[in-house]
Amino acid sequence: MNEQSLKAQEVKEQWMLLGLAGPAVLLIFAIIIVPVGWLTYLSFVDSNGEFTLEHYQKMIEYKSYARTFITTFEVSILTTLICIAIGYPLAYFLSVLPPRLAGLFMLTVLLPFWTSLLVRTYAWLVLLQKKGIINDMAISMGVWDSPLKLAHNLTGTLIGMAHIMLPFLILPLYGSMKKIQRDLMHAAANLGASPIKAFWQVYFPLTLSGMVAGSLIVFILCLGFYVTPAVLGGGRVIMVATQITAILENQFNWGAASALGVVLLVATLVILYVASKLFKINSVLFGKD
Amino acid sequence: MYALDTVDLEVKSGEFLTLLGPSGSGKTTLLMAIAGFNRPDAGSIRFADTEMILTPPHKRDVGMVFQSYALFPHMTVSENIAFPLKLRNVETKEKKQRVQEALDTVQLSDLGNRNIDQLSGGQRQRVALARAFVFKPQILLMDEPLSALDKKLREHMQIELKRIHEQLGVTTVYVTHDQREALTMSDRIAVINDGKIAQIDTPHAIYNQPSNQFVADFIGESSILPLTLEADNKLSFSGQNIRTDVNLNSARQWGLLVRPERLFVADKNSLSIDEHLIFNGIVRDFVYQGETAYAVATINQSYELAFRFGTDASSTEHMMQTGDEITLGLNRHDTTVIPLEQIDQS
What we know:
The structure holds 2 protein chains of 2 kinds.
Chain A: H1 3-43, H2 54-61, H3 63-96, H4 99-110, H5 117-128, H6 133-140, H7 154-178, H8 182-190, H9 195-223, H10 227-232, H11 240-251, H12 254-278, H13 281-286
Helix pairs in contact in A: 1-12, 2-3, 2-12, 3-7, 3-9, 5-7, 7-9, 8-9, 11-12
Chain B: E1 16-20, H1 27-35, E2 46-47, E3 50-51, E4 62-65, H2 77-87, H3 92-105, H4 121-133, E5 139-143, H5 151-168, E6 171-176, H6 179-185, E7 188-193, E8 196-201, H7 203-208, H8 213-218, E9 223-226, E10 228-229, E11 235-237, E12 240-242, E13 254-258, E14 264-265, E15 276-288, E16 292-299, E17 303-310, E18 325-331, E19 336-339
Parallel strand pairs in B: 1-6, 1-7, 4-5, 5-6
Antiparallel strand pairs in B: 2-3, 7-8, 9-13, 10-11, 11-12, 13-19, 14-18, 15-16, 15-18, 16-17
């Protein structure tokens, strides 16, 4: 009875769902697929519009490109590690706080998130530079004698980037920690696990998916970072994004710039693919178990 | 305000002791104190003669089955059960053998390689149990382990737990709010109320000789009739003498505890005042419940008396009607006198 009407209703619902997703699909197509496709095309043609591999060959020939990629990965890995080192205990602290306090502390973690990236980066410059607040205070209190080089180098870049990236790690990590039942830790202790063993054998494995998800987000965002390394690196930390800007500003060479972008994109996708093979894709992208 | 007041509890070696009480009575708090998960303000917890109160939970050598089962989701069934053995550095071969024995005991012999999320509720419960006893703890604690299961499975597991307890002989402290579960499984029951032990005794004694009104009310169905203390220091209910061994010297109110199934519907003339207590009343409610029928009668126009009697195939749904006059008998050796609590103003 009513098979056809019910079927028609189901089909209609599916079309409506698709209709809802329509604008987003169009938008993604217009602002991501098309430009990326265009850039990929540009990276394979020379100034006369002929097919060429010249841009990619240059990347292999010139040492500066390799150095840029090494720096990019170095900075991204270090930033991710710093974020884990700071973020894991912080996320744990947040996860054991009573809900109201946790909300308050979470706000302090997220607050910088709502401030402009540029403002935050320059704020770090004010704090870190040679005659900046940190050096002035440390010297007047006698912590160190002469100003430390905290900005315009790798140190400054890492400090700034770790600060900006921290929430991306903490949120999924906090989520996975919140899901761990208190009883599980009680059970571990009850079965004879010292607090340290209980942590490594029960707690840590259960937070792994959140940590991988957060680390991956941080790492991938770091790969394409521009503002912070440019300002706090003071020209000494050349990452891929910085190099792309330089090529465009100095040589107006779209082909070379596109090729760099394509390589970075491919590298990112490869990393995502490998990570999704090592861990379950769901757990990587959404922090699920 | 304390979750747990002064509690003095001694568990005998090998015994199955149940802490029974309504939610919020402090029974879980007591269990957690034994396991070491909460720290009492004062007191002593001794295993044999060793003081344990300062020992951290992981050194107490107590197995616990949690209400939520608390199985490690990132480990298989076997890995969960092997976990306490691994921590005790049991060698691989023996570990494997003991895990298999534990699996056999809880009748999950072939499920060792399953993941936890592939198990049903009842199977999870068994794994939690196996994990709690596999390392031969001094005491096995269980915190409402069956409360998440449906009724049929729960009743099956009660028998199963009792069997496993007899097989292992491990001292067990079991927490439940389900009085039938407590009566089914326990060697002794400690009824907990308001952070105190209201009574501790065998299931039989708890049911038949409750020492106070709370226990009488909480365990089983009951009607309590207020008794009159006569001038000759004897108790009576509407003119009928009640004999009792209870010491009546303390000045308080006394009540007669009547279990519904001990009452029987009788012909007025067949009862003798020497052997029986006789109640004349009017049926107020009657419910047919399958194996038994349950009814409430009003006696002396003021007291309610619940009674229950067996049915057979010929008994009809309406064998009794509201408003019927009825005579109920109670064997005098089934009478239990209990002290009544001070009547609340409310």
